[in-house]
């Protein structure tokens, strides 16, 4: 059996796939390739289009199918990934199979933790919508946390992983501390958080931006995790020592699929753990962590992609004929098709994003 030596340019992306549109692997692959990565993809489902259309065809793949793929790669020495990304997985058995692969890669020779940087996007549900995967996946995701390098849950998923509801700034910090301390995650990004007005004001944020657009809030934190005999140790970290940053950016109105998948991919592709970046916060220069810089760049690219997408939507909708009498299901399909991300048309925004919305330290 050939050796699976880590290749510093190669990423394995394990998530959903659609024939038409941009979610899952379709959302992640082209942006990562533009950033210079060789991307190998494993599809957990193959659908005609995303499920927001209301009708679709295709298959969810089972754990045996994925294991057969991983075994084939292993036999040929092709598990050479220095980075790995996981998104939507359709069953607890699939999540368990992927966890076994992560453990195998972590056990390789080739540097600390097998030379693997692993971004786990624990796709389970949303605020207001609840859990849309089988509840049996949760404990496996919780086990998976200790093998991840970066995690990108939304608020609902962060709450589910920790068992703590985020209702204010204090509980938000408890969630982040739990992910670092109990679950030994080095880099945490909670991709969307809602806080009371008073807490937003306390961190220099607000519900709307200066131009009146609704604002989204993302928060993140990093923590040094030490190894002993190859195992992660619980960090000596308390809540008052947390270094939490936040980014506020416009919420683009309307339903867009694949945005979270692309954010995770861009963050992994942009992340470089060596070195710090200088950032201006309240007039004082303070080092910005590599994961915060990666998040800034990912958000900047996404804002550009969404802007390009909205321009196309506006033009299409301006020229639409009267839809009176159109079948409701077909009208939904047409609406979803118009709102597919313009990814290829946003090559410039992916490669050279303009950073407008910057990370700032909470408490600085």
UniProtKB/TrEMBL annotation:
Q: Which Gene3D superfamilies match?
A: 3.40.1190.20
Q: Which residues form the Pyridoxamine kinase/Phosphomethylpyrimidine kinase domain?
A: 117-196
Enzyme class (EC, first level) = transferase
Q: Which GO terms describe its cellular component?
A: cytosol
Q: Is-annotated flag, keyword Transferase?
A: yes
Indicate yes or no for the key word Nucleotide-binding.
yes
**Pfam families for this protein:** Phos_pyr_kin
Transmembrane segments in this chain: where? none
Q: Name one GO molecular function term.
A: ATP binding
One biological process GO term for this chain?
pyridoxal 5'-phosphate salvage
- EC annotation? 2.7.1.35
InterPro entries xref list: PM/HMP-P_kinase-1, PyrdxlKinase, Ribokinase-like
Keywords assigned by UniProt? ATP-binding, Kinase, Nucleotide-binding, Transferase
PANTHER family registered for this protein in UniProt: PYRIDOXAL KINASE (PTHR10534)
Similarity section = Belongs to the pyridoxine kinase family.
Protein's name in the database: pyridoxal kinase
Q: Identify the species of origin.
A: Kalmanozyma brasiliensis (strain GHG001)
